Amino acid sequence: MRLTGIAFLAVGLGAMPALAAEPQVLDGAAAFPEGPAFHDGALIYAEYGGNVVSCIDPETGAKSELWREEGCGPSAVLPLDGRFLVTCYDSGRLEAFGTDDATTQSWEADAEGDPLVGPNDATPDGKGGAYVTASGPWESEPIVGRVLHLDADGVLTTVADDLHYPNGVALSPAGDRLFVAESEAGRIISFAVAEDGSLSDRRLFVRLAAIDPASGVLPYPDGIEFGPDGALWIGQFSSGRILAVDPFGEFLSAVELPAPAAPNLAFTPDGTGFVAVTVDDPAAPPYPGKVLRLELP
């Protein structure tokens, strides 16, 4: 199946040409798809509106249920050391489960006993652990978001706080800086990463409205991923526009999808394309959306 009526933009520095073809619809009836990732060639992703982690077989295109927990509100799934880590946004937990669909470990608070509020996204730390964002409550006023580090031994530690709804998170290709989308601030920030996983040197990386007026005056960056060429790609919950910026935060290009939200993406293992998720109705549960595959030239 092909989705028609897609517009692609390649503007700015011109370093990234338009995509090679219209996207392929992998799942046309996803319930608020989020946090896509690849594992052993298969695509896995959370469906927030369905309280389920789904899997698509790359050979057959068949969709199956990998894990389910009512009330979880999953917003990301991360393959991690033979298990899968799920952020349960609604229930305020991290869940780790194995291939037998059984939950093997659960976290409701960090090592200091501070409860998780709105765990949202996760990325590998390169050492068998992960960085996890805890956005805080959905209301925009409190600036109480955190970044936590889950080490390989399962110890969960807060490594950054006072963030305005931290959301997407990605480790730089060199592993020396951690990038975080502060959704309510409309910006991406970064931290220096120490050997023990702690963070320091918080810096502004880019304000979306400053580099891309087409994203609007109140852009809402969501998922972020580094592409095979080292560019940082930024999904937005405020529009169907996905941005790509260079390592200096300069605008490279944008992809426009016909949806009010295109929050997350993941690059294919062979680097030839990426998967993007859309939410076609962000206002009405179960928030129907799609999972799309897009080819790079």
Please supply descriptive tags for the structure shown above:
297 residues, 1 helix, 52% strand, disordered N terminus, 25 strands
Q: SSE layout and pairings?
A:
Elements: E1 7-9, E2 24-31, E3 33-39, E4 42-47, E5 52-56, E6 63-68, E7 74-80, E8 83-88, E9 93-97, E10 103-107, E11 119-124, E12 130-134, E13 145-150, E14 156-163, E15 166-171, E16 177-182, E17 187-193, E18 199-207, H1 208-211, E19 221-226, E20 232-236, E21 241-245, E22 251-256, E23 261-267, E24 273-279, E25 288-295
Antiparallel strand pairs: 1-22, 2-25, 3-4, 4-5, 5-6, 7-8, 8-9, 9-10, 11-12, 12-13, 13-14, 15-16, 16-17, 17-18, 19-20, 20-21, 21-22, 23-24, 24-25
Task: Provide structural commentary.
- The two termini are 20 Å apart.
- The protein contains 1 helix and 25 strands.
- The longest helix is centred in the C-terminal third of the chain and has 4 residues, at 208-211.
- It is mainly β.
- The chain is globular and about 50 Å long.
- It has one domain (7-295): TolB, C-terminal domain (Neuraminidase, 6 Propeller), CATH 2.120.10.30.
- A hairpin with a 4-residue loop joins strand 20 (232-236) and strand 21.
- The strands form 6 sheets. The protein has a 5-stranded antiparallel β-sheet, with no helix packed on it.
